[in-house]
């Protein structure tokens, strides 16, 4: 049977199958109350049991109730991403659903209950519903809408409303119930239905919807409209004070949008939307509904991440391009969501693959010369960057590889709610689209395009499509088997990485070996280049480890794997070989200002001005020289010499690091490093450190979890040159070394933070053990309680100095790990800097050191927002003395935890400190000025 006949048969079979499945019939009478932000609903649902099983109960999605409290799956998801908004919300800002009654067609009251997820409702039927039979349910309930600040869903301060996934909809039963809670992922899974909504809403509001509207009328108390949708999953409604939406009527559909461009005229916007509608029709076929809603709210949920997020006055793209890409991206999301009914919690990648593949095609067709950084690529100084050479579509490989190089990539088949934010929003979507572009290169672009069109026309509006349906259609279009695509590319996170080895040539042929460096058996493309022009192209497959190939010689001077970068390959730095001799194969060295994207044709070295500060060196400007690109690479060097104007000498730091990533979970990281630094710890007194170290990291299977475990082993050698004026004050040898092993277990969570570590240090003069345990609890009443326990003990101590002793409030930091601005100061503002370490006390008590053992506890609780009360207690013991009890207490302004905090002592062993002279000198501050640490504050929700 030929492929056309097979496809025709499939169409007929699916059409018959769809006709045999009856749609649920949904009728709702709805009233929106703007004064209480409530929606009163009377819902009549005719539920058809299309399964082969009898049903004694029916489950419903009630996603409005996901906002009801702090224990829902939505609140938990927010907390995982360090978003406190829903956790700290006031009760009047939350959403909830109050079900008043549930009766069947015989007016028999039915029992119902909420599941543990809290936004799933189970209705018990009076009698089992047989296969292929139907029943009617009448449900009366009230929706209290949430404040829109959480997810854009709900009510707005200006009286506007945005409703999506708002009314009760039956969960999908396909032999088992698919029960998914709302996690702000846009993946509601329900059966399509024939839905009619008789809606009464407030006067003065303008309504747009993805449903068809009719019978619009105004009466003294408000407005009434009837909305109808056939084969729809849910009704989306936007109610606004101003008329912000425009209906663009095209030959193919009516596109309703409020996306605009300030410097792009309405006429031009209409022309662009016509172009987009035609593009959608050509590549996906007839849209089965009348209206396609494309709103700014939808776009903001999944925007074009990157440079377009910059303020408008520095955006690098033209208004036309930017407008069309925003509309196209949002239209594709809406178009596919309204027509291809995959289980998006499990199989979202298919919709993402089609949408992003078509985005790539659109740019190739209409903007083939568009640069990734747009107009910035023409600016002097920027033109020399490899980033400036990158085309707009190269971002798909770049962002998918960003996750792979960090070892946080996840398989495309990973459930949507198990993806970390960066993968769910960006990397996996791009990898999916790039996968179809990869297939288009391999089997032919026309075949993939026609396959997508055929798949859409056959399966649109089919309930509960499976990945197997997509696979079957793809395989029908190809002369080659495509198991590798689904088994290797989709179902695993294996990396693609090939290399050319052992090349030889004759006058008429070239023989070479292709090595599969990671064993991911997928096709690889090879290009022959002559003076940067492509003169030949080949595809090779079935390379398990390595394989020899011979190709005819057509004047090539270079062979390059994956030259067009259609394949998301892990490492492209070893993808090319020259045919002009050994010395010609060495890649030239390229020095470049600031960090850049990876250029496979150069050995890149970057330089950038830096400046550090401490009070002994002052501001120390210098030059940082390094090889780290925007993508992670195994070997990195980082050298940062700086000049101390106060000491009139060079200071700075340097490091060499080799980082090796392993699997997704368990032991995922090994890092080997040699580092050194030199600076001043007092006037005319220099310290220098040299540290070889090895670090191992572990993480759980669930990458959303922020739990990590690390084992660090290092040997730190410290060399000190001490000024003669203070030499008598230094009662330890100037040079020393310490072998240090530390195991740390940290779960960095916004609700329950847990961390502990065990540290061992050994040197010629001492051996000591230390343990720290820290918890932070955020209770349901928004009260936060912090507790930290520390215990340290010398196993041997041959020193008479307190330099290596445990400290209550300001450790001497003999390993030079802590970022003191003035580490040797005992008076003045710099002595008031505090870094929570060892004893963790805030008050400066007499004799704060312990050369035998120390045990302390630090606790704090907030009394209003970021204002907290703190208290510290502890015992410390010196050799030959009895243990002493110490304590302090005060007020903590926890402005940004671990980044900027202020401590105001009240009472301690010193007495009432607040009543003592020079109280301002007792105030302590914690501040973080490290750019890398501060950046982590903003990026932690993504990774």
Classify the helix fraction into a percent range: 10-25%
Average pLDDT level: 90
Helix run count = 13
Oligomer category? single chain
* Largest sheet properties: 18 strands, mixed
What is the end-to-end distance?
A: 49 Å
Radius of gyration: 33 Å
Q: Per DSSP, what share of the residues sits in E-state strands of 2 or more residues?
A: 35-45%
Counting helices, strands and paired strands, the structural category is alpha+beta
Low-confidence stretches: 1-20
What is the 3D form? globular
- Give the total of beta strands: 47
How would you characterize this protein structure?
18% of the residues lie in helices and 39% in strands. It has 943 residues and is of the alpha+beta class. Strand 15 and strand 16 form a beta hairpin. It is globular and about 95 Å long. 34% of the residues are buried. The longest helix is centred in the middle third of the chain and has 23 residues, at 344-366. The strands form 9 sheets. The protein has an 18-stranded mixed beta sheet that branches. The chain has a 7-stranded mixed beta sheet with strand order 4-7-2-1-13-16-15, with no helix packed on it. It is built from 13 helices and 47 strands.
Fill in the keyword field for this structure.
18-stranded mixed beta sheet, alpha+beta, disordered N terminus, globular, 7-stranded mixed beta sheet, 943 residues
């Amino acid at each position: 049977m030929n492929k056309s006949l097979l496809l025709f048969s499939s169409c007929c079979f699916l059409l018959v199958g769809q006709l045999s499945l009856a749609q649920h019939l949904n009728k709702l009478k709805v009233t929106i109350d703007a004064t209480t932000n409530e929606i009163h609903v009377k819902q009549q649902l005719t539920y058809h049991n299309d399964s082969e099983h009898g049903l004694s109960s029916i489950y419903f999605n009630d996603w409005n109730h996901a906002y009801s409290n702090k224990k829902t799956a939505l609140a938990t998801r927010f907390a995982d991403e360090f978003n406190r908004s829903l956790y700290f919300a006031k009760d009047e800002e939350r959403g909830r659903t109050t079900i008043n009654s549930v009766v069947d067609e015989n007016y028999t009251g039915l029992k119902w209950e909420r599941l543990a997820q809290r936004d799933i409702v189970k209705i018990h039927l009076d009698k089992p519903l047989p296969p292929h039979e139907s029943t009617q349910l009448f449900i009366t309930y009230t929706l209290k809408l949430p404040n829109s600040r959480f997810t854009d869903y709900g009510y707005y301060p200006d009286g506007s409303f945005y409703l999506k996934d708002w009314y009760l909809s039956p969960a999908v039963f396909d032999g088992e119930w698919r029960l998914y809670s709302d996690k702000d992922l846009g993946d509601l899974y329900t059966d399509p239905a024939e839905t009619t909504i008789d809606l009464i809403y407030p006067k003065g509001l303008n309504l747009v919807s993805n449903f068809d509207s009719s019978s619009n009328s105004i009466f003294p108390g408000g407005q009434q409209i009837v909305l109808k949708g056939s084969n729809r999953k849910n009704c989306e409604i936007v109610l606004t004070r101003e008329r912000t939406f425009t209906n663009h009527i095209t030959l193919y559909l009516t596109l309703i949008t409020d996306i605009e461009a300030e410097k792009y005229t309405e006429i031009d916007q209409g022309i662009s939307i016509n172009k987009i509608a035609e593009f959608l029709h050509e590549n996906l076929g007839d849209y089965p509904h009348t209206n396609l809603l494309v709103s700014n709210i939808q776009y903001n949920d999944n925007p074009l991440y990157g440079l377009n997020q910059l303020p408008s006055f520095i955006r690098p793209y033209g208004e036309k391009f930017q407008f069309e890409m925003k509309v196209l991206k949002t239209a594709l999301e809406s178009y596919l969501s309204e027509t291809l009914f995959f289980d998006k919690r499990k199989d979202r990648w298919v919709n993402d693959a089609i949408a992003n593949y078509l985005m790539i095609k659109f740019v190739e067709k209409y903007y083939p010369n568009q640069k990734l950084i747009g107009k910035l690529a023409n600016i002097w100084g920027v033109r020399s960057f490899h980033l400036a050479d990158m085309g707009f579509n190269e971002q798909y490989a770049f962002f998918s590889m960003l996750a792979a190089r960090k070892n946080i990539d996840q398989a495309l088949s990973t459930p949507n709610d198990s993806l970390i934010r960066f993968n769910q929003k960006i990397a996996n979507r791009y990898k999916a689209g790039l996968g179809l572009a990869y297939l288009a290169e391999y089997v032919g672009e026309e075949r993939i395009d026609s396959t997508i069109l055929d798949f859409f026309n056959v399966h649109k509006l089919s309930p509960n499509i499976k990945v197997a349906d997509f696979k079957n259609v793809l395989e029908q279009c190809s002369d080659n088997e495509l198991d590798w695509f689904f088994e290797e590319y989709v179902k695993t996170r294996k990396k693609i990485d090939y290399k050319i080895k052992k090349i030889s040539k004759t006058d008429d042929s070239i023989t070479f070996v292709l090595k599969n460096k990671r064993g991911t058996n997928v096709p690889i493309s090879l290009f022959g280049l002559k003076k940067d022009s492509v003169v030949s192209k080949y595809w090779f497959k079935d390379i398990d480890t390595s394989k020899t190939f011979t190709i005819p010689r057509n004047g090539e001077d270079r062979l390059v794997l994956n030259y067009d970068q259609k394949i998301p390959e892990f490492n492209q730095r070893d993808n090319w070989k020259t045919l002009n001799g050994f010395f010609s194969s060495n890649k030239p060295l390229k020095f470049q200002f600031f960090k850049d994207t990876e250029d496979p044709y150069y050995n890149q070295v970057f330089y950038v001005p830096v400046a550090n500060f401490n009070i002994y060196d002052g501001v120390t400007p210098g030059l940082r020289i390094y090889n780290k690109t925007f993508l992670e690479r195994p070997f990195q060097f980082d050298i940062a010499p700086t000049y101390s104007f106060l000491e009139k000498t060079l200071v700075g730091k340097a490091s060499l690091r080799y980082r090796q990533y392993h699997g997704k979970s368990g032991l995922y990281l090994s890092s080997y490093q040699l580092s050194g630094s030199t600076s001043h710890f007092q006037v005319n007194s220099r310290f220098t450190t040299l540290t070889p170290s090895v670090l191992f990291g572990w993480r759980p299977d669930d990458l959303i979890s922020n739990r990590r475990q690390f084992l660090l082993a290092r040997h730190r050698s410290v060399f000190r040159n001490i000024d003669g004026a203070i030499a008598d004050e230094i009662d330890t040898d100037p040079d020393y070394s310490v072998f240090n092993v530390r195991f740390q277990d940290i779960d960095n969570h916004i609700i329950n933070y847990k961390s502990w570590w065990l540290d061992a240090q050994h040197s010629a003069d001492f051996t000591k053990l230390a343990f720290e345990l820290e918890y932070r609890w955020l209770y349901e009443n928004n009260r936060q309680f912090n507790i930290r326990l520390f215990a340290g003990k010398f196993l041997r101590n041959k020193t008479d100095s307190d330099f290596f002793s445990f400290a209550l409030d300001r450790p001497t930091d003999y390993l030079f790990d802590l970022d003191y601005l003035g580490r040797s100061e005992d008076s003045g503002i710099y002595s008031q800097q505090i870094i929570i370490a060892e004893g963790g006390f805030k008050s400066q008590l007499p004799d704060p050191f312990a050369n035998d053992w120390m045990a302390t506890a630090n606790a704090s609780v907030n009394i209003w927002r970021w204002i907290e009360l703190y208290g510290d207690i502890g015992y410390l013991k010196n050799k030959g003395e009895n243990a002493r009890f110490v304590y302090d207490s005060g007020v903590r302004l926890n402005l940004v935890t671990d980044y900027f905090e202020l401590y105001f002592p009240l009472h301690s062993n010193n007495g009432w400190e607040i009543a003592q002279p020079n109280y301002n000198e007792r105030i302590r501050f914690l501040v973080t000025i490290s750019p890398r640490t501060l950046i982590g504050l903003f990026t932690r929700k993504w990774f």
